[in-house]
């Protein structure tokens, strides 16, 4: 958590990645919705109502960058990882690589990131199916 504090300025924005169409990928929009409902003091993008996901990420990031050209972005996303890490929340001093765990090539998000490890990378195929 201390590493994320280093990135919080008046120019910081939060970008939450994912979709509620896939249960394993809904962490980002759930966090975005929670932060928005709690009147978080920084701009938050990516909610259940307005998600940022694989099909719209390029368009949405372009829109966000036009609105906040000098912003420092913190990305939030679900992540696959080691079995022993399931349920952990990690802060990282580097961007999110959305879709990497399920073989997608999408643009990196943020200069720092917060990820929630939702399952083992051995189960990646489960998270490519939609509900």
From TrEMBL:
Residues of the signal peptide: none
Stated name of the protein: Spore protease YyaC
InterPro entries xrefs: Pept_HybD-like_dom_sf, YyaC
NCBIfam families, sorted: spore_YyaC (TIGR02841)
Organism: Clostridium perfringens
Keywords associated with the record: Hydrolase, Protease
One MF annotation (Gene Ontology) recorded for this entry: peptidase activity
GO process annotations (BP): proteolysis
Keyword Membrane attached: no
One Pfam family matching this protein: DUF1256
